[in-house]
Design brief:
Pfam families: Tautomerase (PF01361). By secondary structure, the protein is of the alpha+beta class. The chain has 3 helices and 4 strands. The protein has one domain: Macrophage Migration Inhibitory Factor, CATH 3.30.429. The radius of gyration is 17 Å and the shape is elongated.
């Protein structure tokens, strides 16, 4: 039974999330011969303040803040 966890930044529509679930479900069935009803998918939507890449949150990146520890510590 494949159990698939997806973490994604908030901001997608419910239909986009549904399409993602559908595509991942189909991929699991097609590639590892998973039984359709045994595929479990959990999508966790992460707040932009809680999602970081390169020590810069999405919120900071969109605000045009620099990528330094000093910037992160000012929050």
């Amino acid at each position: 039974m494949p159990s698939i966890a997806i973490s994604i930044a908030k901001g997608r529509t419910p239909q986009q999330i549904r399409n993602l679930i559908d595509a991942v479900h189909k991929a699991a069935v097609d590639t590892v011969d998973a039984v359709d009803e045994n595929v479990v998918i959990v999508v966790s939507e992460i707040e932009h303040e809680h999602y970081s890449r390169g020590n810069l949150t999405i919120k900071e990146s969109r605000a045009g803040l620099g990528n330094t520890a000093e910037t992160a510590n000012q929050k």
